[in-house]
Amino acid sequence: MNKLFNYLEKEYKVRTPRSLELFKRASRVMIRGGSHSLRLWKPYPFFPYSARGAEVIDVDGNRYLDYWQGHYANILGHNPEFIRQAIEPYFNQGAFHTGLESLSQVELAEEIVSSLGQSGLKVRFTTSGTLAATYAVMLAMGHTGRDYLLKIGGGWHGASPFLLKGVKYHPDSGFKNHDSAGLPSDFHRKLIVTKFNDCEHLSKTFKKYGPKLAAFILEPFIGVGGFLFCSKEYLRLARSLADRYGVVLIFDEIISGFHFCASGLQRLYGIKPDISLFGKLIGGGQAVAAVVGRSKIMEGCEKTTKGRARVHFEGGTFSSHEGYMRAGLAMIRYLVENEGQIFSYLGQQAERLRKGIERVFLEQGIEAVCTGYGNEIVQDSSFFMVNFPRKKITYNCPEDLWNPNRSEVRLREEALKLALLIKGVHVVHGGGCLSAAHTPEDIDRTLEAYAETARIFRRFR
């Protein structure tokens, strides 16, 4: 493995000398040279110069087919022309940030509520998924008067301090550890972790903790945990148990919202949470996130509940920024108007990509298994993650992907990343998601990059 990494790092450094110099400069004034750990891969990240459609061009002139697409925020590719046209008139008026309410936020809220097809919902905007998750948990605790929380092991809800447990897999304890220093020990004790798609474990957990729980927060499509869909049976049980114990059910759709249809994934499942979190796509590439919930719960933002103080959900200085709202509104309206074409195209191309990746590795005697395939509910999935099993395995839960005894995690996270960059493809966690800007020819080019990577891996095995 060390020989493989040495080869890949050498090849990468030859291609990216200017990025290396910028990284050294950044490292003198920034921690590890940046502000987001996932962007700071080893030995150093490339620095982008421009981006359009499916491609990013770095400062050294290298072109990359990009499957990260702004943390999955750009379903139509980088810099769609109609998004720029939507926001330029606002900036041309000379109003960069007024700090005042606007018509566009009302219209965007209306579009989101309409897409969910559920009456009695209210919206409040903020600027990140982390803040949305934090505020949602605060609303649930304020509404119920309880302070225990339940989440899924392997689930990621941003860096919300209430939810930083069970994110990273630990070989000795699985998804049971607290994942951040600097937090009160009470947070760890009152955050309970259950197993993904395990109905029996969920029932037992609710039986033990149900009367104490304020909320159960989950991703119906788990992101960092492995691009896996919850079963309908699991979501139905979650809804039933939440009702039985008076627990607020929160669907984190920061990633899944508007990525499989012009609505939340909840619409396809036909299961309604009490609170939904949206982000990424609803901002059209800008800093927008939303908490959408039942009126009775959301009213906790502005008035006391059962003698308790209101929840201070103010959203932040740049919440509902008019430029952001206009970009989000343009994006959502476009997806609604073109729903019949966009999602089926993405699903078809991603299916070809997933199967093609598995094939080109198998041709070199290497087993690679993609996650991100749809299920009986979701027909069109644009996501793919490439995994290298250590033994015959069906990937059903985050433990399968992150346990180094089950999967070759370093091969996926580090070696595959560098090998593909050398071949002009940018991925995260071994894959990512397609945008509508990725053409069939781009898929061909990507598969050739994976094929060349497979040949490199075989050479160093």
What's the layout of helices and strands?
Elements: H1 2-15, H2 17-27, E1 48-52, E2 55-58, E3 63-66, H3 69-72, H4 81-92, H5 103-116, E4 121-126, H6 129-144, E5 148-152, H7 185-189, E6 191-194, H8 199-209, E7 213-218, E8 221-222, E9 228-229, H9 232-245, E10 248-253, H10 265-269, E11 275-278, E12 289-294, H11 295-298, H12 322-337, H13 339-362, E13 369-371, E14 383-387, H14 398-402, H15 409-422, E15 425-426, E16 432-433, H16 440-460
Helix pairs in contact: 1-15, 4-12, 5-12, 8-9, 13-16
Commentary on this structure:
It contains 16 helices and 16 strands. Helix 4 packs antiparallel against helix 12 and helix 5 (103-116) packs parallel to helix 12 (322-337). The chain has helices at 2-15, 17-27, 69-72, 81-92, 103-116, 129-144, 185-189, 199-209, 232-245, 265-269, 295-298, 322-337, 339-362, 398-402, 409-422, 440-460, and strands spanning 48-52, 55-58, 63-66, 121-126, 148-152, 191-194, 213-218, 221-222, 228-229, 248-253, 275-278, 289-294, 369-371, 383-387, 425-426, 432-433. The relative contact order is 0.15. The chain starts with a helix and ends with a helix. The strands form 4 sheets. Strands 4-12-11-10-7-5-6 form a 7-stranded mixed β-sheet, with helices on both faces. It has a 4-stranded mixed β-sheet with strand order 1-2-3-15. The chain has a 3-stranded antiparallel β-sheet with strand order 13-14-16, with helices on one face. The protein is 41% helix and 14% strand. Strand 5, helix 7 (185-189) and strand 6 (191-194) form a beta-alpha-beta unit. With 461 residues, the protein is of the alpha/beta class. It folds into 2 domains: 2-79 and 340-460, Aspartate Aminotransferase, domain 1 (Alpha-Beta Complex); 81-337, Aspartate Aminotransferase, domain 2 (3-Layer(aba) Sandwich).
